[in-house]
From TrEMBL:
This is Holliday junction branch migration complex subunit RuvA. The gene is ruvA. InterPro entries: DNA_helicase_Holl-junc_RuvA_I, NA-bd_OB-fold, RuvA, RuvA_2-like. Residues 1-59 form the DNA helicase Holliday junction RuvA type domain. It comes from the Bacteria. One of its GO terms (molecular function) is ATP binding.
Length: 184
């Protein structure tokens, strides 16, 4: 899975770039608010979306934006294209505010998001993004542990609450066992 790319922009258009990194040109879909010029260097955090008929890369300037994007697409009915459309409309701070304040109008204004989908976004994510529930900074330093727990089916919101209680000096296997005991 591709999680980060850094390289030179070979092609740039609204919402899409070709990023040349390590001898390969990667097509990366980006929010339209994120703009690059050809021959400019870029650093992007990547969400790799794999389906049986395609592999798509979605790029973001910060890991916090990537985490919010992944939260959005975890909602049933929200795919990466709609998730990207939400980021194209506004910043991650405004998306979080819209979720916390249950702003249906904000989500209804986005192409492809109807009333029921907007309600589902707010219901599914409000508890996950309300202040204090997710501390993305805690998750950054323990990426191997977080990746292991996510692959076992746990949500980042669940993991964030137990990360401070894990002794990071232990081997990864011991950290995972301790985390599983805390998550029970």
């Amino acid at each position: 899975m591709i999680g980060y790319l850094e390289g030179e922009i070979k092609f740039a258009s609204k919402g899409r770039i070709v990023l040349f990194a390590n001898g390969i040109g990667f097509t990366v879909f980006i929010p339209q608010s994120l703009t690059f010029l050809e021959k400019e260097r870029a650093k992007l955090f990547i969400h790799t979306h794999l389906r049986e008929d395609s592999l798509s890369l979605f790029g973001f300037a910060t890991v916090e934006d990537l985490d919010l994007f992944e939260l959005l697409i975890s909602v049933s009915g929200i795919g990466p294209k709609i998730g990207l459309a939400i980021f194209t409309v506004t910043s991650s701070e405004n998306i979080l505010k819209a979720i916390e304040s249950s702003n249906l109008t904000f989500f209804n204004s986005i192409s492809g998001v109807g009333k029921k989908t907007a309600q589902k976004i707010i219901l599914d994510l409000k508890s996950k993004v309300s202040k204090g529930d997710i501390n993305f900074k805690n998750l950054e330093g323990s990426s191997e542990l977080v990746d292991s727990l996510v692959s076992l089916g746990f949500q980042k919101s669940e993991i964030a609450s137990i990360i401070p209680d894990i002794d990071t000096s232990l081997p990864l296997g011991s950290q995972v066992k301790a985390a599983l005991n805390l998550l029970r």
